[in-house]
Amino acid sequence: MIVQEQEAIDKAVEAITGDMGALWITLAAILVFFMQAGFTLLEIGFTRSKNTGNIIMKNVMDLAVGSVMFWAVGYAIMYGSDLVGGGFFRSSPADQGYFFFSADDWYNLFFQTVFCATAATIVSGAIAGRTKFSTYLIFSAILTTIIYPISGSWYWPFDDDAWLNTAGFVDFAGSSVVHAVGGAAALVAAILVGPRIGKYVDGKAQAIPGHNMAFGALGVFILWLGWFGFNGGSQLAWGGDDTIGATSVIINTNLAAAIGAIAALFFTWARYGKADISMTLNGALAGLVGITAGCGAVSAWGALAIGLICGIVVVVSIELIDKKLKIDDPVGAISVHGVCGFLGTVLIGLFALDGGLLYGGSGKLLWVQTYGSLAYIVWAAVASFIVLFILKKTIGLRVSEKEEVEGLDLHEHGVEAYPEHISQDK
Prior knowledge:
This is Ammonium transporter. By secondary structure, the protein is mostly helical. It has helices at about 1-45, 50-80, 105-125, 135-155, 165, 175-195, 215-230, 240-270, 275-290, 300-325, 335-350, 365-395, 400-405, 410-415, and strands at about 80-85, 90, 200, 205. The radius of gyration is 22 Å and the shape is globular.
């Protein structure tokens, strides 16, 4: 009788723990969902007012299209039971995976859906102000349906069929799986679309200031908040040791963001003689992106180190890409997500408590982290180039000069976001 009672108690506790885990993942997914508002405000603030409505539409459609396509196809490619192409991606029978119907796993679908939308939105900022809306919609659909799910299938199913998981790769919440993939796609898109009119004059980069730094700052605060769900929710459980794990991840996330902002502030202050606002905001985002891979694998000191490094590197990277490589990225998305996504993933090889070089590791983890992140970048860049090159040769990537000068709001959507146009955009 006592044994049966204990078994009943254990079963009840297990059920409660499972429900608490599902609740935590759902709440975390809601926070990540809210990050879409952050990306929208950041991109609006860092660009010209005449393109505000276009940016709103792109970010809304990233989420809308991504939600439908990931539910219909992407989730099965990422988490399906059958391997295709020697494990290059996954698949599932229609009654098991495509057009997802698994009531006991809805919360995981929702959590992964908002991650997928995040990867797509990264591209939007890098090509703001000069890209056809129709072309962007097609690319966003392909990224959320195929490109991102294939890359995710290499690691996040956490089984022996995921080749990077088997190799010992570590990417807790997606510095590479989400951010480096989005950053690589953004790099290719920015190159193929080309710079905004007036960005480069006689070979020199010209500043094109954003129209509302307050929107940009609010966007960063929303992203910072949402990141607690992005990283903390990736613990995928709540209760006991998982509660400690999730909250330690949140602390590491916050520390990296804070020191990233501080590092960018003082680095630009020393470099330019002024405390640069946009670089400081991007420094916080760089710290967030950098710690996303290792937030569950490093100590608080490791999180501070990663955030510090990324906060400085993002400033150097933005300057290099803008002034030397002459690639026009209005919001710094390539540097924040691509460069710092790669860097944060690789730095696990130094700072991981288990296997990091600074903690007695042999160097194996550093090597795995490097080639694993590069695999994501190469895949996203090659796939994006193929898709965007085809689109460029068929329907085109770029709006006309007249449309760009007068604003995408007016020509792509037939309305201006502001009743009275801001004079700097005329």
